[in-house]
Specification:
single chain, 249 residues, alpha/beta, TIM Barrel, eight-stranded mixed barrel, globular, binds guanosine-5'-monophosphate, binds manganese (II) ion, binds sodium ion, EAL domain-containing protein
Length: 249
């Protein structure tokens, strides 16, 4: 497959880039973190969507290598942004491949980024298998001081079981709930219920896909801690985050 051949060469040809999306505190509007999102600029294809190449990278066994590059690059970039956390997406194969905690520890040691400035975002589907090993791995990286967020919360199944088994520092409310917040009382009720869970567990809540001031207001009223979405900024290159941080008071 042509795409596969191109993907195998992408890392050594320097075709990957990380973009960063702002995460803000809903009460103050301050920038608290950025989520790293992988981009592949393939010379002849143009920008290839992560949904199109990440599953393929997993399938052909390239994700450990790409994931290590993402982690290291995100940690190195984050050094430039005082008091801003960097959140890195991690998928099933990275956690289950073994040695993930070593990879995280090495990225921190080699870049000098304080562990507290790194967050690992895990999609709940990741946790379906290998639960004991996964629990151990997550505990090991949390012991380093790295925080762990559950991504896309509310979209998979047995999410509540995961909350009992794994320790998370943050839940990210999936953007499908945020999208219908203003015109669907059921979505609002679900968001309230999730925020009740985060309060009861003493963990932070992040609402994804916030596009309008009304959504932001409704989330703030409900006590959601932070938000990200087009209202605050699209994913942008690291240099644009430099500017945001410089403008921050
Ligand atoms: O911005 P967007 O279209 O890039 O993201 C699409 C999906 O790709 C999201 O679900 C996101 O979690 C995933 N993704 C983005 N960057 C990475 C990455 O570095 N590693 C992994 N495993 N997934 C990523
Ligand atoms: O699955 P994950 O949450 O990691 O992926 C984030 C995805 O959401 C990326 O594709 C990113 O570009 C997209 N995204 C970020 N902010 C918004 C937003 O405000 N609205 C919509 N529709 N998508 C968003
Ligand atoms: Mn994410
Ligand atoms: Na998400």
């Amino acid at each position: 497959r042509a795409l596969e051949a191109d993907l195998r060469n992408a890392l050594k040809r320097g075709e990957f880039a990380l973009h960063y999306q702002p995460q803000v505190a809903l009460d103050s509007g301050r920038l608290t973190g950025v989520e790293a999102l992988l981009r592949w600029n393939q010379p002849t294809r143009g920008a290839v969507r992560p949904d199109a190449f990440i599953p393929l990278a997993e399938e052909i066994g390239l994700l450990p290598e790409i994931g290590a590059w993402v982690l290291r690059t995100a940690c190195a970039d984050a050094l430039r942004w005082a008091d801003v956390k960097v959140a890195v997406n991690v998928s099933v194969h990275q956690i289950h491949a073994g040695g993930f905690e070593t990879l995280v520890a090495r990225a921190l040691a080699e870049t000098g980024l304080p562990a507290e400035r790194l967050e690992i975002e895990i999609t709940e589907g990741v946790l379906l298998t290998h639960t004991d090993a996964t629990v151990r791995t997550l505990e090991q990286i949390r012991a380093l001081g790295v925080t762990v967020a559950m991504d896309d919360f509310g979209t998979g199944y047995s999410s509540l079981g995961y909350l009992q088994r794994f320790r998370f520092d943050k839940l990210k409310i999936d953007r499908s709930f945020v999208a219908s917040l203003h015109d669907d009382p059921r979505a609002a009720a679900i968001v309230d219920a999730v925020l009740g869970i985060t309060r009861a567990l003493g963990v932070r809540a992040n609402a994804e896909g916030v596009e309008t001031p009304e959504q932001a207001r409704m989330l703030a009223e409900r006590g959601c801690d932070e938000a990200q979405g087009w209202l605050y900024g699209r994913p942008v290159p690291a240099s644009a985050i430099d500017t945001l941080v410089a403008e921050r008071l």
